[in-house]
Amino acid sequence: MTTFPLSPGSTIGILGGGQLGRMLAMAAARLGFDVAILSPEADGPAARVAAHSIVGDYQDPVALKALADISDVITFEFENVPAPALAELQRLGAEVAPPARALAVSQDRLVEKTFLNEAGIPTVTFARVDEAPDLRAAFQKLGAPLLLKTRQGGYDGKGQVWVDRAGGADIAMGALGDRPSIAESPADFRRELAIIAARGRDGEIALYPLTESHHEGGILRRTTAPAKASRRLLAEAERIAATLLGALDYVGVIGVELFERDDGRLLVNEFAPRVHNTGHWTLDGCEVDQFEQHIRAIAGWPLGPTAAIHHVEMTNLLGEDVNGWARLARETESRLWLYGKRDALAGRKMGHVNRLSRLDPQAT
Amino acid sequence: MTTFPLSPGSTIGILGGGQLGRMLAMAAARLGFDVAILSPEADGPAARVAAHSIVGDYQDPVALKALADISDVITFEFENVPAPALAELQRLGAEVAPPARALAVSQDRLVEKTFLNEAGIPTVTFARVDEAPDLRAAFQKLGAPLLLKTRQGGYDGKGQVWVDRAGGADIAMGALGDRPSIAESPADFRRELAIIAARGRDGEIALYPLTESHHEGGILRRTTAPAKASRRLLAEAERIAATLLGALDYVGVIGVELFERDDGRLLVNEFAPRVHNTGHWTLDGCEVDQFEQHIRAIAGWPLGPTAAIHHVEMTNLLGEDVNGWARLARETESRLWLYGKRDALAGRKMGHVNRLSRLDPQAT
After folding, report:
1. DSSP code string of A64-88
2. What is the ipTM, given to two decimal places?
3. CB contact under 8 A, A51 and B51
4. What pLDDT is recorded for position B364?
5. What's the pTM value of the predicted model, to 2 decimals?
6. Which end of chain A has fewer CB within 10 Å, C or N?
């Protein structure tokens, strides 16, 4: 039985071995924890800064047993963890956080938006699409155009296609592999925003400043933080984040992607039940960063303060961008985070740079 | 042949596996480097956050060869590295930084003070003491009392004894094991200060703000940073640090312990050719911390900015102090660094806490 708060010297298990696991592992080490990484990759970014590395498939019962045996609490660094893996860990008596339900909800876009609306959190209007006729019917109900997305899988803009008219339903469904899908109305947004939030084991909530996201080709390119925002907008973003954390009975850090519509309303695009790329600015920009915050939350520690200490422009280093490290290292306002990935494939997140400037007192 | 600047993905070797190695390893990982730890301890604080761990004695030729083979540059985290170990690494063609000479000078208190004085850096007056008659003669030359220290070894107040009068020479020498020693005049200091400084491969120098040290029982207990200091005092501390770095043709971070005498003069107590406990405040208090700075320097990267962003009171968590982690975790101004050591032995450095407050604009 795990007792909370978890003492330093305990071991934190992480499903997934990428950069989020790497930064979580470093935060855990700072607080005196050991880390065990379970990943199919032997030499991934996270395993190289962790005390223990278990190499195996996420559904390999031997690997899951090894992780459960060594870990006092287990978390995950990506939202496509197979549900049976978490179920198996729980069957083995492991403590898992965030809760499996949050992961399950986030893994299905239809379930996610339905859940959000039922919790009183606005999203775009949407319709369930199992087959082409459902999509044609959706045009009747929602108008045109529609954004067709597979309910499961897909990230960084993959697994989605715009459909202009009902007549294009068959082609669109085919383009996504005729998989269970969701049709969404356009968000008509003027800005993409995001908010990182955390909830402790005692229900305590901590909210980071709102940020503005800039995507290119479906991939996050830059985060500007804190975002310029009216008090009303800020209050609504905070209401949404706090409501979501409560509705999910959440433990840990969550990333909530938002649309600010032309009419000023806020909609949730989606949430990720984990530390999030839009929170990387907190590493250098906030009192306690999102990675330490997640470790604090799942370890049953009190949450840390979240106020901004700098204005930050976070830029992802994608693919060969990382080859600019020598130039970036000369910029005195830049803090560099490189993930130790071997191959700079096109579009791959290789690192990020936080460019700091003086915090506008009005922004806090 | 190593080419500088070292590319991310390169491997940094570290002799020593304690908390300084741990914090260096985390800083290296942030910049995309892998780390290899050589330590006699299999499961030490540093090895648990490093990609590679080589377990062996510092003079084990097989272990040294393994470290040299895997590392693009090798550094050390404590100053008692046996000189033959560095010589062997250099014979194997390894790049070692800081330079072996700095280590050798720092390992012998007589050589160190002689070197400092020859470089124009003031210290207490001192005399070489090989045998009891030398100590009796020292009283003639320097007066009384004298602080007798072994030339080599000793740390945290160990290996030294006060001697009141020439008649106590034999007993004092016996107390230190009749080893080659140095007799020092009292420093008559009103404050103990320290300055962390860095020098890059191109000779660029970066100086951190001056700090005030508070020792208890010969062990650093607290650092207050930045220290309140006149411009004159600050300028003299900076002159001393820069002079020392140049005289040693240094590469890396150095810690310089200073005495501020009652008459306002600054003396160097000793220097450590490595990251230093009096620089732990920089982890949360400065633009770029001493650990990243050391990695930057030895990797041939440009040095980072060193300005303070917070006023910090750093307190070492010694022995059972670490059991106060739950209380410290609740302090919103406190940033906790725990080293993952298994046994909280009395006086052992288990972690530290940086308590942040607003920077006094006059102090910068």
Report:
1. HHHHHHH-SEEEESSTT--HHHHHH
2. 0.95
3. no
4. 45
5. 0.96
6. N
